Amino acid sequence: MKAQKIVFATGNAGKMKEIRMIMADLGLEIQSMKEAGAAVEIIENGKTFEENAMIKASAIAQELHKRGEQAVVLADDSGLEIDYLNKEPGIYSARYMGEDTSYTIKNANLIQRLEGVPDEKRTARFVCAIAAVLTDGRSFVTKAAVEGRIGYEEKGENGFGYDPIFYLPEYGMYSAELSPEEKNRISHRGKALREMKEILASEL
Description:
Helices cover 31% and strands 25% of the residues. It is α+β, with helices and mostly antiparallel strands.
């Protein structure tokens, strides 16, 4: 049975915007889990980005397929790894300092923890794993990263989350200073989504 839509397991409006831009030419309707009416309690107890992405995608797919919906379910797990902080916050990036804590506070805390640390030791990366569960139950995972450094202050009005403190030496600017088009082209999520899009284009 051919998929009728793609449901992405997120409620994050910023992510949905990126996903719709990248996945548009697959020609399927793209919904968030809220729009699809899939309110499932998901316990992210994986030890890696890949495991957590698959936990989310599988839980939503199970719910939708039980209802007889022909949806491909995608989920991502992404985060920031800071080498000097033993790759923190890592898979706990969204939950770092509490899920309801604003990113302005989270970003300020990370900058503070790196006080006095020189440029060359402020290396970091954004990592993203995308999991897909197809209507026939098959699953796929892609993973990508973008390398950079942690800056000394927040900069830029675009992006969300940790983007304002993530400096890209190659571009001479912060992730939050990139236009949405530029960000999609180079970001960890953009790369992983494009890889997934190629898989879906050949499998659907």
